[in-house]
Amino acid sequence: MLEQAAALFAERGYDAVSVREIVDAVGVSKPVLYYHWQNKEALARAIIQDFFKEAQALREAAFAPQNDLAGILHHYAEGMLNLAQVRRATLAFGLAVRFGRTSLRSLFDTMREQDACIMGQWVELLAARGLEPAVAQRVAKTFWSLLFTELVAVLDCPQAVRPSHETASEIVQTLFHGVLNQRTPRSHA
User: Fold this and answer.
1) In three state form, how does the secondary structure of 130-160 look?
2) How many structural domains is the chain composed of?
3) Does residue 186 contact residue 150 with C-beta atoms inside 8 Å?
4) Which has the closest alpha carbon to 89: 26, 19, 5, 1?
5) What local confidence, expressed as pLDDT, does residue 69 receive?
6) Residue 93 half-sphere exposure, CB side, CA atoms within 13 Å?
7) Cα four-point dihedral sign 107, 108, 111, 117
8) Residue from 145, 125, 123 nearest 61 by CA
9) Fewer C-beta neighbours within 10 Å, C or N terminus of the chain?
10) Which three-class secondary structure state does DSSP give residue 118?
11) Torsion of CA 150, 114, 9, 80, to 10 degrees
C-alpha cells in the first residue's frame, strides 16, 4: 500500500491525490486504509519513515563490519543506489516533499530535522574512524552531494543508470581523490 500511494503521490503530487484514488489503486476499502493510518498525511509520513528506516539499516550495516573508510562509504552508496532503484516512487515523493512541492510543511520540517541528525551521525561515525571533525564534516557533505546527484539520476534517467557497484566506486574514488587529498592553499601575505 505504501509503494502504491508513493507512486501516486510521485506521479501526480500529494495534494492532487485523493484517499479514494489510493484505495482504488490498492484494491482495499477506506476503512482498511484508516485502520492502518489516521489520514492521508499519516500515510505520507509512513512512506517517508519507511524509507528512512531502510536507509538507517543500510547505514548501520555499512558501519558495523568494516573499519575501512572507503569500504564503508562504498557499501552505503551502493545500498542507497539499489534502494533508490527499487523504491523510485518513494524517492521521487520524498524529494518532492523535501523541496517543498506539497502542502506537507510539517513533514518537510521533520525530514529536515532527520537530515541534520543523519549528517551528525555521519560526522561522528567518520570521526570515530580517525578523521578530524572538520575533515569528517567535509567528507560527509561531499559524500552526500555526490550520492544525491546519483540518486536524482536514478529518477531522471533510469534507462542510463549504471550498476550500483560501479557508481558507488566512482563516488568513493572521487571523494578520496578530492576532499581527502586536498591540500590547503597557502595564504598570500
Assistant:
1) CCCHHHHHHHHHHHHHHHHHHHHHHHHCHHH
2) 1
3) no
4) 5
5) 85
6) 33
7) negative
8) 125
9) C
10) helix
11) 30
Amino acid identity at 9? F
Tell me the pLDDT tens digit for each residue of 13-33.
899 999 999 999 999 999 999
Q: What digits encode the pLDDT tens for the residues 107-141?
A: 777 778 888 888 898 898 888 888 899 999 998 99
Does residue 5 belong to any structural domain of this protein? no
The residue with cell 534502494 is: 83
Nearest by Cα to 76 from 127, 144, 142, 141: 144
Range of the domain at 55: 49-177
The CATH number of residue 124's host domain is 1.10.357
Residue 3 lies in a domain: no
Reported as half-sphere exposure (CB side, CA atoms, 13 A), residue 107 has a value of 24
According to the model, what pLDDT value does residue 188 have?
Answer: 39
